[in-house]
Hints:
Chains C, D: This is Dihydroorotate dehydrogenase. The complex is a heterotetramer, with two copies of chain A and two copies of chain C. Chain A is α/β, with parallel strands linked by helices. Chain A is 24% helix and 22% strand. Chain A is built from six helices and 14 strands. In chain A, the strands form four sheets. Chain A has a seven-stranded mixed beta sheet, sandwiched between helices. In chain A, strands 2-1-5 form a three-stranded antiparallel beta sheet, with no helix packed on it. In chain A, strand 12 and strand 13 (207-211) form a beta hairpin. By secondary structure, chain C is of the alpha/beta class. In chain C, helix 2 runs parallel beside helix 3 (146-159). In chain C, strands 3-16-15-10-9-8-7-4 form an eight-stranded parallel beta sheet. Chain C has a four-stranded antiparallel beta sheet with strand order 5-6-14-11, with no helix packed on it. In chain C, strand 9 (166-170), helix 4 (177-186) and strand 10 form a beta-alpha-beta unit. Chain C has helices at residues 79-92, 106-118, 146-159, 177-186, 225-238, 253-262, 272-275, 279-293, and strands at residues 7-9, 12-14, 18-20, 43-44, 61-64, 67-70, 97-101, 122-128, 166-170, 191-194, 198-200, 203-204, 209-210, 217-220, 244-247, 266-269. At the C-D interface, strand 11, strand 13, helix 5 and helix 6 of C face strand 11, strand 13, helix 5 and helix 6 of D.
Amino acid sequence: xxxxxGGDHSSTLLRRPFAVHDVKPDYGGTVxxxxxxxxxxxxxxxxxxxxxxxxxxxxxxxPFPLPRDPVNCVLVGGGSGSAPLFPLAQSLRRRGCRVDFxxxxxxxxxxxxxxxxxxxxxxxxxxxxxxxxGTRGRVCDVLGxxxxxxxxxxxxxxxxxxxxxxxxxxxxxxxxxxxxxxxEAMACGVGICMSCVIPVVGEDGIxxxxxxxxxxxxxRGEHVRFDDVGTIPFDALGAPGWKGxxxxxxxxxxxxxx
Amino acid sequence: xxxxxGGDHSSTLLRRPFAVHDVKPDYGGTVxxxxxxxxxxxxxxxxxxxxxxxxxxxxxxxPFPLPRDPVNCVLVGGGSGSAPLFPLAQSLRRRGCRVDFxxxxxxxxxxxxxxxxxxxxxxxxxxxxxxxxGTRGRVCDVLGxxxxxxxxxxxxxxxxxxxxxxxxxxxxxxxxxxxxxxxEAMACGVGICMSCVIPVVGEDGIxxxxxxxxxxxxxRGEHVRFDDVGTIPFDALGAPGWKGxxxxxxxxxxxxxx
Amino acid sequence: MNADLRTRLxxxxxxxxxxxxxxxxxxxxxxAQFFDIAxxxxxxxKSLMLEPRAGRPAPRMAETxxxxxxxxxxxxxxxDVFLQRDLPWLLSRGGRAIVSLAGSGAGEFxxxxxxxxxxxxxGAIEVNLSCPNPADPSGRHFADDAAQAAAVVQTVRxxxxxxxPVLAKLAADVPDVVELxxxxxxxxxxxxxxxxxxxxxxxxxxxxxxxxAGGMGGLSGPAIRPLAVGCVYRVHEVFPEVPIIGTGGVRxxxxxxxxxxxxxxxxxxxxxxxxxxxxxxxVLREFTEALDAxxxxxxxxxxxxxxxxxxxx
Amino acid sequence: MNADLRTRLxxxxxxxxxxxxxxxxxxxxxxAQFFDIAxxxxxxxKSLMLEPRAGRPAPRMAETxxxxxxxxxxxxxxxDVFLQRDLPWLLSRGGRAIVSLAGSGAGEFxxxxxxxxxxxxxGAIEVNLSCPNPADPSGRHFADDAAQAAAVVQTVRxxxxxxxPVLAKLAADVPDVVELxxxxxxxxxxxxxxxxxxxxxxxxxxxxxxxxAGGMGGLSGPAIRPLAVGCVYRVHEVFPEVPIIGTGGVRxxxxxxxxxxxxxxxxxxxxxxxxxxxxxxxVLREFTEALDAxxxxxxxxxxxxxxxxxxxx
Lengths: 258, 258, 313, 313
Ligand SMILES: Cc1cc2nc3c(=O)[nH]c(=O)nc-3n(C[C@H](O)[C@H](O)[C@H](O)COP(=O)(O)OP(=O)(O)OC[C@H]3O[C@@H](n4cnc5c(N)ncnc54)[C@H](O)[C@@H]3O)c2cc1C
Ligand SMILES: Cc1cc2nc3c(=O)[nH]c(=O)nc-3n(C[C@H](O)[C@H](O)[C@H](O)COP(=O)(O)OP(=O)(O)OC[C@H]3O[C@@H](n4cnc5c(N)ncnc54)[C@H](O)[C@@H]3O)c2cc1C
Ligand SMILES: Cc1cc2nc3c(=O)[nH]c(=O)nc-3n(C[C@H](O)[C@H](O)[C@H](O)COP(=O)(O)O)c2cc1C
Ligand SMILES: Cc1cc2nc3c(=O)[nH]c(=O)nc-3n(C[C@H](O)[C@H](O)[C@H](O)COP(=O)(O)O)c2cc1C
Ligand code: FES
Ligand code: FES
């Protein structure tokens, strides 16, 4: 979902994207999101008082896909990226999945809802960069051990791009499928501004610059070309180096129509 | 004084000027101003709650000059222009002056502090454009009568330019001195932006485009070239038609140094 | 009372003057989640090129005071996919399409216009003159050179169906916008869209590097509205008969009034769609209310009012 | 830790890079009520002409999103009154003066420079090239024509004292700011100030008439910062040795960082003084804090950082 910040006469025009943390039926319906103060927009949000109105658009984008069978899932979150893992954990639990958490942050005060994590999950491991809470280090330092101990079947991850890349690598080395939710800067959140694109390989093997707000933010980790994020890979559809034959283009067009 | 509106990240950059209504020693010092919601800035102000912080610069400009002797003064206000007349009335009363009010507004709900006016002043006459309070019409429709009945010796006025022009004319026809406080649009309020100029005749007979924020907002009514407000009179200092001799310029320079 | 909102851009008749700006409304489908796109005047497509295009690397945008910088590099599917996939969808929903074209030279622009002319139902063609001209060594835009711009417009006009109006989209950061407008009109543009984004940059003060990959980006949003209104005003003064789509920072219904008073016959909403996906219909509603509040019975009466002494309407 | 803030504009040495922008700080006296003007780098005067000048009729300003439009018509007392009255006052308070000049042709600019040269204590001369050129039938500015601009700069340089640097003040809305900068440098400008206000307009939607008397005004304030930073970046890229005063929407200390990273050696605060009369000292304090937070020991190390790969500083 995305939230307008700064009020009607604000000089900050763009919405701020946040993950839905929880949806409850209380008080005629409540949507919860967790956020860390980072810059002017989140500082403004933090100043809001109860009963103030927020201008919200959502839900946006594709949610985490749920497994058909009750498998073992490890959920990996970095910083505020932990937020969407909690409702995911609940849904997985309802399907009978085992859930284990690995949550990382820069320091203890940035760890999101450690207690809730412990309550929902079978196990919850924490890492902080400065060692002020849990293990000192990064989530991937403990992820391999958790996967082995929990006999995980699938990995879900949300957080900054370098973390997602590392998690995808660890999952790959254990032969596990991984779903990652990316946090690319987003101006509109609804697919019209083209600011949130990342290179993703399609089922057809063609790399496309896809909008993470509508085609994501959840992708299969193996499909994201992490090394090329922030670039246009030369072989991406429509890149200067891309040699699309008319046939390929016709196929593209047919695919999109379907 | 001038007030910043819209908060830190507001897209409305400029301050809004207001007259000081009252200054009290309560709560460690209170400055009061009265305002009408007109556009976005005043709408924002109206939404403030008690204990919110306001960014204020003031007092600014020249206040109404007070007479040395206890004379009879009539105070004429239009719309929110009534605000500064109340502290003026108090000061005049403290000097033993008789005070009479003539307050005009578009309609009853725009009349400022009728009760206070009646309490402070010997008499208080009200006019509204629609007749919903007091006499239907403009302040000048009743001003002449008030001047005669109160045997006024001096006139003070604050409000929109056309009203000030009319009040100055009425005062002139009764041979009374008149002090007017103008409400020109002001960007800075401290004399640096040159947006608030009006043509005023100096003691030396030369018309200058003077800044109403620092050289005013109070002027002697007779000195303001009301008919030329919104223009540059051809004979104003530095106007295309102005033929300043070197001697006149030298005098100007000497005057300003003094 | 409800004012008559109809407006015309050459032979194109629109039910009301609020359209989307090129590149700020996707294919129309995304916004259709938020409102019925038949309700607004028209949808302007992003600028289409002959081939699919991957655009520029991220970060592609940065927020600026009351505006944003963007550099998407015109990522898009290419003209053929648009004509086969997006246009029929738009028409099936009752929408009107203004098709924006971007070529790397007059020849490519001509080919684009030819392909568009084979399709049915295109309301107008908009020629994006703020594309880098590959023939110019310093990478300037077609719009930076009135003669180059006119050559492009002329080619598009001669390849397009005669019943489809051709609008030249001008930039504000050009040597002389009135001269540029004149050159495009002489090259038989049926109307003008003003203005595109202005070249600017911002520095990320955490890294001290340009905030948008590649350095320069295009500035848009309410911040540029006075520049856009100024261009419309100056061009309408000299060419009062040429229809103009005003664009640049439209946020509210009174902004539509401002552009129309300056001389625009229609107004395109761009960046503000990103902040408020239902902006177009909100702006249209506010505009209607603003006309009603002023007792104006026909929107077209407002066009150019700021040029007329008195109270305009 | 407190960073070394000193900076240089040609032969002019300033204790810190924060100066006032021309026409946005009165004579210095008005702001002296709010802070000690010796504390800031320098005070730039409003543009002075030979004769006193009454300026343009009211309304002279209009608020715009994150900016304002103004048209004061360079009201001022004339050069002689300035030299006799304001300059001595400024120097007596320990201030440094950058004197901005506006003439109606190269001849008048030369005479202005000559008179300034008779005075003691002038830190630098700034040549306002955004004055209408009376020789141009369409009333364009000197800055719109690089050759005209260069002629003015050359005349001022030859009439000014050789130990007083001459800065050419450029506009953003010119055909090609890099070309203009090059012409001024070739005409021996010692530095450049970028940018002046951009021509724009707004319509008062109550009256449907232009909000500023005369129609067009100059757009300033944070809204234009990306355009100003873009000009500084592009010019510094080509002329890295030429000192630049960056100006356009500076509001905070990180804005100073942004301009300096783009290539400015000093930064002028303009419109924001109107909103906050102590803006200059606040900006200076914030800038110092920003350097400290980044562990930068010399402000001059930041100059041009955005052009260097890596993290800049
Ligand atoms: C899909 C998604 C989900 C997110 N979920 C959460 C969440 O649940 N909780 C939470 O605290 N944060 C979340 N974030 C990050 C959050 O959006 C940013 O912290 C926020 O936008 C910062 O705004 P600001 O004005 O405070 O910062 P500024 O730095 O002042 O913002 C300037 C600009 O940069 C963008 N930006 C800044 N930081 C980020 C970032 N990390 N990611 C994306 N854009 C950024 C802003 O949107 C804005 O456009 C999420 C981001 C994305 C993309
Ligand atoms: C010296 C002086 C004293 C004033 N005292 C009072 C007072 O005590 N109480 C009160 O209610 N009002 C007073 N006003 C008028 C008050 O400043 C305006 O109502 C206010 O600025 C409107 O701001 P806005 O954002 O709501 O309106 P908008 O119309 O949105 O403002 C747009 C711009 O126009 C300017 N502006 C709009 N209306 C006026 C106006 N009438 N006079 C000057 N500038 C205007 C604003 O300052 C702003 O720059 C005074 C004005 C002046 C010059
Ligand atoms: C992200 C983005 C993409 C744009 N893409 C195009 C485009 O493809 N073709 C075009 O002519 N203009 C394009 N524009 C310019 C807009 O159509 C519009 O002219 C400009 O942004 C000013 O309007 P605004 O301030 O309402 O956004 C784009 C603008 C933005 C912000
Ligand atoms: C009211 C006003 C008056 C100005 N007067 C002058 C002037 O006399 N000479 C000049 O070179 N620039 C003048 N400028 C331009 C500023 O010096 C500055 O270049 C411009 O406003 C951009 O900076 P800002 O956004 O910080 O205001 C003026 C600007 C304003 C707003
Ligand atoms: S955020 Fe605008 S397209 Fe994704
Ligand atoms: S309001 Fe700025 S000079 Fe008076």
